[in-house]
Amino acid sequence: MELKSGIHTLLGKNLFLTLNNLRTAFKNVSDEMKFWRPKYYYVQIEETGKSIDEENTTQYCYKMNAQNDNGKTITVAFNSSKNFEIGTTLRLKVNRASKKKINSISSFEEL
After folding, report:
1. What are phi and psi of 64, to 5 degrees?
2. How crowded is residue 43: how many other Cβ atoms within 10 Å of its Cβ?
3. By the 8 A CB rule, do 84 and 111 touch?
């Protein structure tokens, strides 16, 4: 009986360790997914874009602070073929938001 009890204890410990390792692995994957998930920030155009004339087109450069829903502020820079009117609000899709650098955006929509 003692041998059977020892096997059950050993199996139980191994099962616990395996489940604990799986839990840690899923948490790490979840954290990684949160990091790569796009984040949305909002800006209100306060000055006209700086125009850059390229071949047959004009691009407007913007560099400004943007805020997310939680009030976190980052600096963003982007170009657009449209010169937005002052007061226009944009929703920006930022892939990796950092307070320490100028962030680029992958897309935006006018609200």
Report:
1. -160, 175
2. 20
3. no
CA distance 41 to 69: 7
Q: Report the distance separating Cα 45 and Cα 93, nearest Å.
A: 16
Residues 6+ away with beta carbon under 8 Å from 85: 45
DSSP SS3 for 15: helix
Instruction: Please state, in angstroms and rounded to a whole number, the distance separating the CA atoms of residues 73 and 54.
Output: 31
φ/ψ bin of 71: left (φ > 0), alpha (ψ from -120 to 50), beta (otherwise): left
Residue 105 structure tokens: 């955006």
CB atoms within 10 A of CB 74: 19
Using an 8 Å Cβ cutoff, are 60 and 47 in contact?
no
∠ CA 81-77-36, rounded to 5°:
110
Give residue-wise pLDDT tens across range 61-71: 999 999 999 99
The pTM (predicted TM-score) of the whole model is 0.64
| Both tokens assigned to 71 | 């009030």
